[in-house]
Amino acid sequence: MMPKSVATSVSAVRWQDGALIVGGSLVVALSAQIAIPLPWTPVPVTLQPLAVMLVGAFAGPWRGAASMFLYLMEGAAGLPVFTPIGAPGIARLIGPTGGYLLSYPLAAYVIGQFAARGWTATFGKAFAAFLLTSYLILFSGGAWMVLAGARTWYEAAVLGIVPFIAWDLLKVLFAASMTSLKSRRSRA
User: Fold this and answer.
1) How far is CA 107 from the centre of its chain?
2) Where are the alpha helices (DSSP H) in 3-149?
3) What span, in angstroms and rounded, lies between the C-alpha atoms of 188 and 181?
4) How far lies 134's CA from each of 78, 139, 171, in Å?
5) d(CA 1, CA 20)
6) Using 50, 70 and 90 to split pLDDT, how confident is the model at 1?
7) Are 104 and 91 in contact (CB under 8 A)?
8) Positive or negative, the Cα torsion across 115, 64, 92, 145?
9) Does 7 have pLDDT greater than 60?
10) Contact 68, 104 (CB under 8 A)
11) C-beta neighbour count of 6 within 10 angstroms
């Protein structure tokens, strides 16, 4: 049997973990509501990838990934957490944007690992880490379009990757700036 103070500490950590996981899923759900439809592609521009990366970087690899699994379960259950453009519920996960969504747990885990290893402490390393994670999401979306939508790789690139490169660079710059600034402030 654990001493009472240890049991209380373990309970507090579990509550903190739970709060971070739920909070991370809510951050991504809120970011999904900001969506700009593009007329030539079924994929809108959203702030979701930015939120996924920031949740992973700040919550850590396991809590970040758990937040994204929770987010996907909320959306699959029909809660209005996905971007308002597109099919509701589980249909979104098997539709043209499913690859992006299904990559979120892995992306949060990957950027969380980068952060845990100090890659978000300086702007240059943070930029590289966020860029790799952002492209993981983009290419997962493109690959899904090929698998689920019977599109060629060229069509998937034109519809699901190329239009988002510039947007994602802006998100990467913002995320790298935020995390490296936080790191500089915590060292001061």
Assistant:
1) 6
2) 4-32, 48-59, 61-76, 90-94, 98-116, 123-149
3) 11
4) 26, 9, 9
5) 28
6) low
7) no
8) positive
9) no
10) yes
11) 10
Handedness of CA 185, 16, 172, 61 (dihedral sign): positive
Amino acid letter for position 84: P
Output the pLDDT for position 29.
98
Does position 182 have pLDDT exceeding 80, yes or no?
A: no
Task: Select from 141, 124, 130, 131 the least CA-distant residue to 57.
Answer: 130
Q: Is 160 exposed, middle or buried (0-12, 13-18, 19+ CB in 10 A)?
A: buried
Q: Give 134-179 pLDDT, tens digit per residue.
A: 999 999 999 999 987 668 999 999 999 999 999 999 999 999 999 9
What is the model's pLDDT at position 6?
A: 47
- Dig out the tokens for 6 from the structure: 């240890």
Q: Rounded to a whole number, what is the distance in angstroms from the first to the last CA of the chain? A: 42
176 membership: H or E segment, kind and range: helix 165-187
Instruction: Give the count of beta carbons closer than 10 Å to the beta carbon of residue 152.
Output: 11
Largest CA distance in the chain: 62
Token pair recorded at residue 38: 């593009």
- Is 4-187 a CATH 1.10.1760.20 domain? yes
Exposed e or buried b for every residue in 43-57, given b needs 16+ CB within 10 A?
bbbbbbbbbbbbbbb
